Amino acid sequence: EPHPFSPGCPSFPTTCYRFFIIKESFLLYYSESEKKSFETNKYFNIHPKGVIPLGGCLVEAKEEPSMPYAMKISHQDFHGNVLLAAESEFEQTQWLEMLQESGKVTWKNAQLGEAMIKSLEAQGLQLAKEKQEYLDKLMEETEELCLQREQREELERLNQVLEAEKQQFEEVVQELRMEQEQIKR
């Protein structure tokens, strides 16, 4: 299950925030604004800003004066380390456990991250195609409804014209009856 997280940004002189999700053995990160969307929609965006494979990684707490509750993610194949910070000691403990658990897969499996992203992108394209088909169908239905509305308005207009003609006819008939009555008298 995806798990949301909003720690400080790695290796930045000033603090910036990212929204993190652990998906299987990968740490996906997004801009902070994605958190609200995730909480509202209950599903995660398949186009993260980046992916950190956790397989075979060493995850440990790190004391940083400028960054409390920091965590360091390292691997022999990484160029440098990834440094994140939680917002509290409780969150730091939770995230250390989850990150360490997720890092127990092999590095070889972690390298399947690219394949996972391609799969997610393919799913995204399929969803976009389905969305476009739905929108096209919706447009057709909207056009049909507009046409029906125009036809209904035209019928109402004709009905009003006929009603006016009927009233005129009835008035003429009434006048003729009155004239006939006068003639009878």
Automatic annotation (TrEMBL):
Residues 117-182 form a coiled coil. The keyword Disulfide bond does not apply. Residues 18-104 form the PH domain. It comes from the Eukaryota. InterPro entries: PH-like_dom_sf, PH_domain. Keywords: Coiled coil. This is Pleckstrin homology domain-containing family D member 1. The lineage of its organism: Eukaryota, Metazoa, Chordata, Craniata, Vertebrata.
